[in-house]
Specification:
Its EC number is 2.6.1.-. This protein is of the alpha/beta class. It has 15 helices and 13 strands. It has two domains: 130 residues, Aspartate Aminotransferase, domain 1, CATH 3.90.1150.10; 235 residues, 3-Layer(aba) Sandwich (Aspartate Aminotransferase, domain 2). Bound molecules: pyridoxal-5'-phosphate and (2S)-2-hydroxy-3-(4-hydroxyphenyl)propanoic acid.
Length: 397
């Protein structure tokens, strides 16, 4: 049976991560995988997380099964983190949440759930989007189509084209939107644009699915959720897939959530039984550790405050690096203008260089960038910025 299989390529981003690890050049720079790094190039465990883990070690009383939806206190707290404490959808008891193994697990659960709601649903994703979006929805048997989003030429948004395309999306289809810090472009919708999308969803009847994997990495926890909250206040139904990988630094603990908002509480309960049946058919129940950590942090004023501070530090560092990158690259006097880097959000931007230049950066300078020219801004530091800017200027000559 196995000998009939043909080999498949590895995920290019994860492949790049492995190649970087093997590289022995002391000047190597990893701008590939979307993981936050501090000035020393480390991805540390947050102090608030360490404290919550110590608490868990002392106070955990059972390893018995957790239940299909996972940690219910965690689910409640995530709903509030996503929507804010007083959101009308929360107050009307229209939202339900299942803890999921990472944002990816949440998306996969959402995909199967969508399939149960409408076998023929098409999922519309931004051009471009996180590559996993496409493979993950297709793996669930859904059709995936793209709508215009990033303007490669002007390093902005193709908003008018996006709206024209979304006007054609029929009722019953899903439109995936990145809440903030768009992966891979860093270009986000502003509040006015979110409102236009929300009105369109309400009028034409497509169901929004908001993927929020970087809440707090753009402008702030509240600011980064504003589009999501606006949508949730406008439409009857939507899905939300969230991840605690980045903002809590819990990547390998695999913690996220799959939430949906229904028209009313009665519909929400029925739909929730379907969501939980989907969970049961995939992995039965989620693991406990990550949810317990997040629940402990969000349940303690002191730890929440400490987490907010640590998150702000990560965000400020990223935004500072965006300015530094722009200044350093523009100072090289190449024909490109890198000012767009400062206008974009989160860890990613497209540098806008070609494949041969990306290969040269890797082969000659040990600088690792994804093939689309997406860079993880957090991989830059004050120590390596000059080396990086010189290398980019050289390959652009
Ligand atoms: N959605 C987007 C847009 C992402 O960039 C990522 C990756 O980090 C995820 C979802 C999934 O995150 P997780 O690592 O929690 O599965
Ligand atoms: O886009 C990124 O780099 C992150 C991390 O299969 C990631 O979202 C990348 C690829 C992958 C899983 C996570």
């Amino acid at each position: 049976m196995f000998s009939e299989l043909k080999p498949l390529p590895t995920d290019p981003i994860l492949g790049l991560m492995a190649a970087y690890k093997k590289d022995t050049n002391p000047n190597k720079i990893d701008l590939g995988v979307g993981v936050y790094k501090d000035e020393q190039g480390h991805t540390p465990v947050l102090k608030a997380v360490k404290k919550a883990e110590a608490f868990r070690l002392e106070n955990e009383t059972t390893k018995s099964y957790i239940g299909l939806a996972g940690n219910l206190d965690y689910c409640d707290k995530m709903e509030k983190l996503l929507l804010g404490n007083e959101h009308p959808a929360l107050l009307a008891n229209r939202i339900r949440t299942a803890q999921a193994p990472g944002g990816t697990g949440a998306l996969r659960v959402a995909a199967e759930f969508i399939k149960r709601c409408n076998t023929d649903a098409t999922v519309w994703v931004t051009t471009p989007t996180w590559a996993n979006h496409i493979s993950l929805f297709e793996a669930a048997g859904l059709t995936v189509k793209e709508y215009p989003y990033y303007d490669y030429e002007n390093k902005g948004l193709l908003f008018d084209e996006m709206i024209e395309a979304l006007k054609q999306v029929p009722k019953g289809d899903i439109v995936l939107l990145h809440a903030c810090c768009h992966n891979p472009s860093g270009m986000d919708l502003n509040a006015e644009q979110w409102q236009i999308v929300a009105e369109l969803a309400k009028d034409s009847g497509f169901t929004p699915l908001v993927d929020i994997a970087y809440q707090g990495f753009g402008s702030g926890l509240e600011e980064d959720a504003q589009g999501l909250r606006l949508l949730a206040a406008t439409v009857d139904e939507m899905l939300i897939c969230s991840s605690c990988s980045k903002n809590f630094g819990l990547y390998r603990e695999r913690i996220g959530a799959c939430s949906f908002i229904a028209k009313d509480a009665v519909v929400a309960d029925v739909a929730n039984s379907v969501l939980l049946s989907v969970v049961r058919s995939i992995y039965s129940m989620p693991p406990a550790h990550g949810a317990d950590i997040v629940n402990t942090i969000l349940g303690s004023e002191e730890l929440t405050q400490e987490w907010h501070q640590e998150l702000a530090e990560m965000r400020d560092r990223i935004n500072g690096l965006r300015s530094l990158l722009k200044d350093s690259l523009n100072a090289k006097g190449t024909s490109q203008d890198f000012s767009f880097i400062e206008r974009q959000n989160g860890m990613f931007s497209f540098l806008g260089i070609d494949k041969a230049q990306i290969d040269r950066l890797r082969e000659e300078y040990s600088i690792y960038i994804v093939g689309s020219s997406r860079v993880n801004v957090a991989g830059v530091s004050k120590d390596n910025i000059a080396y990086f800017a010189d290398a980019v200027a050289t390959v652009l000559k």
